[in-house]
Amino acid sequence: MNKVYNNRAWWLILPMLLLVAFSAVIPLMTVVNYSVQDVFDANTRFFTGTEWFKEMLNDPALQAAVLRQFAFSLTVLAIEVPLGIGIALIMPKKGWQASAVLILVTMPLLIPWNVVGSIWQIFTRGDIGLMGWSLRELGYGYNITASPVDAWATIILMDVWHWTPLIALLCYSGLRSIPDAYYQAARIDRASKWAVFRYIQLPKLTNVLVIGVLLRFMHSFMIYAEPFVLTGGGPGSSTTFLSQSLTTMAIGQQDLGPSAAFSLIYFLIILLVTWVFYTAIMNMQKDDNNKEA
Amino acid sequence: MSDSLPTTPDAVRQRAAAADNRRRRKARPASRQWRRRGLMTAYIVFVLLPIYWLLNMSFQSNTEILGGLTLWPESFTIEHYAKILSESSWYMGYVNSITYVLMNMLISIAVALPAAYAFSRYKFIGDKHLFFWLLTNLMAPPAVFLLPYFQLYYTVGLFDTHIAVALAHCLFNIPLAVWILEGFMSGVPKEIDETAFIDGYSFPTFFVKIFIPMISSGIGVTLFFLFMFSWVELLLASTLTSTGAQPIASVMTQTKGASGIDWGTLAAAGTLTILPGIVVVYFVRNHIAKGFALGRT
Amino acid sequence: MAEITLKSLAHTYLPDPRSPEDYAIREMNHVWHQGGAYALLGPSGCGKSTLLNIISGLLEPSSGEVLFDGEVVNALPPESRNIAQVFQFPVIYDTMTVYDNLAFPLRNVKTPEARVHERVMEVAEVLELTAQLKRKAKNLTADEKQKVSMGRGLVREDVSAILFDEPLTVIDPQLKWKLRRKLKEIHQRFEITMVYVTHDQLEASTFADKIAVMYEGQVVQFGTPRELFERPNHTFVGYFIGSPGMNFLDVMVRNGRVMAGDTELAVGQGVHDAVARARTTNIKLGIRPEFIEVHAEPVEGGMEARVDHAQDLGTYSIVYLTLGSMALKARIEEDQVTPTGKAWLRFPDERLGLYVDEYRVEIENE
Q: What are phi and psi of C40, to 5 degrees?
C-alpha cells in the first residue's frame, strides 16, 4: 500500500505512545540508573560505572543460565513449530467439530502460567499424578526432583503442551485464509500433497509463522512461572532459567546493582536475537521484491 | 527425441494414466481420513489429559487424593468449589483478575486502534523506528521491570490497585495489539477511506461508523490475544498487588498450609481459571476460523 | 483430446432438494465437440461455474453422467481427467518463478526435464512471457499472472479441454481484448476444446464459435452468436443478448385481432393464427429494437406511438417509445431521421418471434 506522508499521524500515535512510555521508559531508566550504582540504602550510593556489567558477564552461574536458556528455547521451538503446523493441517475445517477442536486446542493457552505449573506438578507427581505414577508403574524410576534429565524432559513436555496451540492456532488461521481456488488449481495441476504444502500452504504461512516464532522465542526466553512452580529450578540449578536467577537476585538477595545490570544484559540478548531474526526475514522478503523490480 | 518421450497422443495418454494410477494407489483417501482423525484425537487426548487430571482431583477430598491414585473421583465432592465460592479471599481473586484484564483490554484496544491506523495509512517521521521500538517492549522480560514497577507504582500511589496491573500489562499488550491490528487494517483498501472522506464523513465518524465495523474480525482476534496475555501473566500482577487487588493466580500460591499443600482446593481453583478462557475462545472461534494472515505483507 | 458429453446431468448443493429451484443445475443433456471454442454465457448465479466445476471434476454431480469420449468420468478426480482450468482470480504459486510455475504441472507427472524445458519455452513464447520467465511470479501484474495460469493449462500435452471461469475479470479493459485474441490464437494453434464461462455477451461472441446461454440452471439455447441474436429460443436469451435487449409484448387474440393490452397490433395472418393456437395466457411477441421500423411520418400499416426520449450513442441512437400502454425501445441508425413527439411503427412479420410460456414457437408465414 502506498502511504501518504503526513506528520499529523503523530496525533493518532500519541495516546499510545504516552501509555507505553509510562510503562516502559521510566522503569527502564530506573534499571539503567541502578545498574551503574552501588546502593546501600536510600541515601548512600556510589557510582560504579561498568563494574556490575563486568561482574555479571563473568559470573559462571549466569553464563550457565544463559546457555541453558538458549538450549531450552531452541529445543522447544524445534518441537513446537513443526508440531503446530502439523496440528493446524489436520484440524477439521467445517462444522461443529471445527469449533470444538479449536476450543479444546486453545485451552492450554488461556490458563494462568503458574496454574500450568500446578497442573503439571500434580500430573507428574509419582504418588498422586497420572503421568508420574504410570511411568513408575511401567518400571521407569521417574523423579523430577532428583533427575535433571527427567526435570528437563518434563519442562519441555509442559512447554510443548502449553505453547504448541499458539503455533497451531496461528497456522490454522493462516491456512483458512487460502482461497479454495488454490487447492482446486493444485488438483488440476496434479500436485502431490507435499507440493501443495510446499508451494501453497507454507508460503501463506510465512507471515503467521514469523509472528509465532518471534512470540515463542521471546516467551520461552522469559519463562518463569511454570518451571518455578514445577521444579523450583532444580534439581540443583538444572532448570533454573534466566528470569528465575534474576528474580532471586533482585528480590531475594536485594542485589540491586548487579541484578539491574543483569536485567539489561538479558534484555539486550533478546533484543539482539529478535533483531537478527526480524531483519533476516525482512531482507528475505525485500530481496524477493527487489530482484525483479 | 529420446525414447523416453512419447510422441503420439496415445502414448501421452497412457503415460498420464500410469501416473494417475500411481497417484491413486498412493492417495487412499479413506485411510488418510482415518489417520488424520487418529492423529487429531491423539493430540486432543494429550491436551486434555493433564486438564482432566486437574478436574479429577478437584472433585476428590484431600484424603482420597493422598490415599492413592484413583482414575476418577470415587467419593465425589464439591467441597473445594464450595470453599472457593464462599470465602471472599478466594473468589475476590477471580473478581480482581477479571477486573484488571477487562480494564487492560479496554485501554489497550482504545489506544491501539488509532495508532495502528496511523501505521497502516501514513508515513511520518520516525515511523519505522517507532514500530520496532514498540516491538522491543514485547520482548522486555517482566522480571527486568519488577523492581522499578514496584517503586514507580508505589510512588504514584497506585500500588495494590487494579489499574496498576492493567497499566503494567499495557507494556506488552499495546504493542501486540498495534501489531495485529495493523495487519488487519492494511488489508482494507485505502479507497474506502477516501470515498468516505469525499462523502463528507469526518475522521472520527468514519473511524467509528465505517472503519471499525470493517475490521471487526481483527478486533475480535486482537481482544482474544489481549485477554490471553493479561489473564495468564503472574509475575507483574502479583508484584504490584498485595491484598486489595490480588489476582487469583497469586492467591493460589498460598495454598501451602501447615499440613502441606491443599491439593483439592488448588485443583478446584485451577479448574476455575480455565473457564473464562473457554468463554473467550467460544466467542472468537468464528473470527479465527475465518482465517487471517497476520503481519505486514 | 476429447468430446465432452453431459447426460441427464443435474446438481444440487442441498441434501434434500424438493423443487426444481433447489437445483443449481437442472437436468440437462449437452455435447461439447472436440476442438470447439465454446462459451457458457449467463448472469451470475445461473449455475455456469457449477457446471464448469462438474466438468473438471472439482464437484461430483448429484445425478447424471459426464462422459469424455464416451467414457463415464463421474468418479474420476480432476487430476485424472486431463482437464485444465483457469480461475476467475489468477492462481499462481507465489514463491516460484514464472518458469517453475509453467513447469509445475509437467514436473508433477515426472516429465523429463529436457521435455519440460521445450514445452515451457514454447508456451512462454505463445503467451509472450519469455522475458518474464526468471521473475518471481508474485511480482507480476494481474494480466501476466492470468497468462501464467493459462500457461499451466497449455503446457500439458495431454489436456482434453481447457475450462475458463471468467478469466478476464481482473484484467484491465485495454488488455482484455489482447488476451482474448491470444486465447483465440491458441485455440487455432493447439485445437483444444475450450469452454469459456462469462457473463459478458461481447466476450462470449468474440471468443466462441458457439454459445450456450444458461438461465436458472439450464442451457436455454446453444447456437452461434448470430442465431442467438436473430432467433432467441427463450425470452431470457432475447433480454440477455443484444443491447438493448429484445422488446416483448404480452399479447392475446380478441375478436380476431391481435391485441397488446388495449392496442391492436398490425401483424400478419400467420402471427394471428399462431397466437390463436396457443393454449396458455403467457404469450409474448418479441422483436429486436434493431428490427422495429420507425417512421417520422404516418405510413401504411404503421402504429402510432409516442416518443418519450431518444438517447444518442454516436453511430446510432436508442428511441424510447410508448405504444398504447407498452414501453418499447427501437434502434435508429445515424442516417435515419430520429422522430420527435410521435412516430409510426411497423413490425416486419419475419422479424417477430412468438414466445409461448417463454419458449419460442415457430410462426408459419404464408
A: -115, 110
Pick the closest to residue C292 from C307, C278, C277, C282 (CA basis): C307
Q: Is the ipTM of this complex over 0.90?
A: no
Of B85-99, C7-21, C64-78, least confident by mean pLDDT is C7-21
Query: How many residue pairs from chains A and C have C-beta atoms closer than 8 A?
Result: 60
Contact flag C95-A189 (C-beta cutoff 8 Å)? no
- Which backbone phi and psi does B234 adopt, to 5 degrees? -120, -40
DSSP C232: -
Q: What is the pTM of this model?
A: 0.81
Question: Would you say B120 and B186 are in contact if contact means Cβ atoms under 8 Å apart?
Answer: yes
Which part of chain C has CATH 3.40.50.300? Answer: 4-239
Contact C87 A192 (CB under 8 A): no
Mutate which: C52, C53, C55, C85, vs A, most A CBs within 10 A: C85
**Among residues of chain A, what percentage have pLDDT more than 90?**
14
Distance from CA of C93 to the nearest CA of A (A): 6
Contact C303, C295 (CB under 8 A): no
The matching CATH number, chosen from 3.20.20.10, 3.30.2350.10, 2.60.40.2000, 2.40.50.140, for C243-361 is 2.40.50.140
pLDDT tens track for A224-259: 777 877 777 777 777 778 778 777 777 666 677 777
The reply to whether residue C87 touches residue A181, judged by beta carbons under 8 angstroms, is: yes
Look at residue A38 and give its three-state secondary structure.
strand
The string of pLDDT tens digits covering residues B223-276 is 999 999 999 888 888 888 887 788 887 888 776 655 667 788 888 888 898 899
Strand partners, C294: C345
Q: Does B103 touch chain A (CB under 8 A)?
A: no
- Min Cα distance C160 → chain B (Å) is 10
More confident position, C251 or A126? C251
In angstroms, the Cα distances linking B105 to A11, B212, B214, B220, B286 are 21, 16, 20, 11, 20
Distances (CA, A) of A89 to A160, A189, B284, C108: 17, 21, 20, 22
pLDDT for the residue numbered C216:
81
What is the dihedral sign for C-alpha B207, B210, B213, B219? negative
User: From A258, which residue of chain B is nearest by alpha-carbon distance?
Assistant: B144
Q: Are C187 and C129 a contacting pair, CB within 8 Å? A: no
At residue C257, the 3 state secondary structure works out as: strand
Question: Which among C109, C112, C115 is the nearest to B16, CB-wise?
Answer: C109
Q: How many beta-carbon pairs below 8 A join chains A and B?
A: 306
Q: How far apart are CA A137 and CA A131, in angstroms?
A: 10
Q: Is C138 on the interface with B (CB under 8 A)?
A: no
How confident is the model over C98-130, as pLDDT tens digits? 999 999 988 988 888 999 999 899 888 888 888
Beta carbons of B40 and A263 less than 8 Å apart: no
Domain C4-239 fold is Rossmann fold (3.40.50)
Amino acid at B76: F
Against chain A, the chains showing at least 3 CB pairs within 8 Å are B, C
The string of pLDDT tens digits covering residues C151-205 is: 888 888 878 788 888 888 877 787 788 888 888 888 888 788 889 898 888 888 8
Q: Where in chain C is the domain with CATH 2.40.50.140?
A: 243-361
How many whole angstroms separate alpha carbon A144 and alpha carbon A154?
8
β-strand partners of C38: C195, C210
Question: How far C219 CA sits from the closest chain A CA (Å)?
Answer: 25
**Separation in Å, CA of C75 to nearest CA in chain A:** 15
Chain B touched by C79 (CB under 8 Å): yes
What mean pLDDT value characterizes chain C? 85
Nearest-CA distance from C38 to chain B in Å? 23
CA–CA separation, B109 and B169 (whole Å): 12
